[in-house]
Amino acid sequence: MELKQIKKIIYQKDFDIMAALREHLLELEEKRNHMEALIQTVEQTIRSMKGEYDMSDQEKFQAFKERVVRENEEKHGAEIREKYGDEEMDAANRKVLDMTEEEYERFQNLGEEIRIQLQDAVRGGANPEDECGRRIVALHKEWLGKTWKQYTKEAHAAIGNLYISDERFKMYYDKEVNGCAKFLESAIRYWVDRV
Predict the structure, then answer these.
(1) Dist CA 87 CA 80 (whole Å)
(2) What are phi and psi of 4, to 5 degrees?
(3) Rounded CA gap, 135 and 87, in Å?
(4) Percentage of the chain surpassing pLDDT 70?
(5) Segments in 50-152 forming alpha helices (H)
(6) Where are the domains of the chain?
(7) Cα 11 from Cα 8, distance rounded (Å)
(8) What is the pTM of this model?
(9) d(Cα 160, Cα 139) in Å, to the nearest integer?
(10) Would you report the helix, strand and coil content of the chain in percent, each value rounded to 5?
(11) Cβ neighbours of 90 (radius 10 Å)
(12) Residue 78, CA distances (Å) to 23, 72, 170 in order
């Protein structure tokens, strides 16, 4: 929890310190349980690599998701935590770690489908306000919902703006077909209140 939030909460007239401490304890216990599970997975992976233990497919998939989360934390964690707070980042990480193989595959497929439809739309000279723009925004909304704690139209619109204002996002979307980032931003801006 950020310092601003803490100050705001504790200075409220109806602040219940016992309830706040209980809630904080639950959050800490959840983090501890998560860390214990990570430690166990890493230990199993080491034993598996030494030939001392055969990991099940489920354990391998869990280790894979943990690696994905860890790499994302290393690459973007500090920036995301600064912008959106620990709670949002932790919730997104939990959602990824809790995904089944089918859910993770759907998440990956959504990202790929968005990329393909964007490229087709830009190559074909489509208008972001046309039906193809609506379809892309609907897919994008579903894709965001796979990792966001809570979807809001305002946050979706803000992400759309990032796609053209942050060079990293722009480069990602425009990597194969120039104009995809702008198309996605324009489509989100037009359709976000309609999907």
Answers:
(1) 11
(2) -60, -45
(3) 30
(4) 98
(5) 57-72, 78-84, 86-97, 101-123, 131-145
(6) 3-97, 101-191
(7) 6
(8) 0.72
(9) 13
(10) 80, 0, 20
(11) 16
(12) 24, 10, 20
The Cα 139–Cα 133 span in angstroms is: 10
At 113, the pLDDT band (50, 70, 90 cuts) reads very high
Q: Which two tokens stand for residue 94?
A: 């939990």
Place of tokens 């706040």: 20
**pLDDT surpassing 80 at residue 9:** no
Sequence-separated (6 or more) residues with CB below 8 Å from residue 184: 114, 118, 128, 136, 140, 160, 163, 173
* CATH code for the structural domain at 101-191: 1.10.490.50
Do 157 and 189 contact (CB within 8 A), yes or no? Answer: yes
Question: How many angstroms separate the Cα of 158 from the Cα of each of 100, 175, 189?
Answer: 29, 21, 9
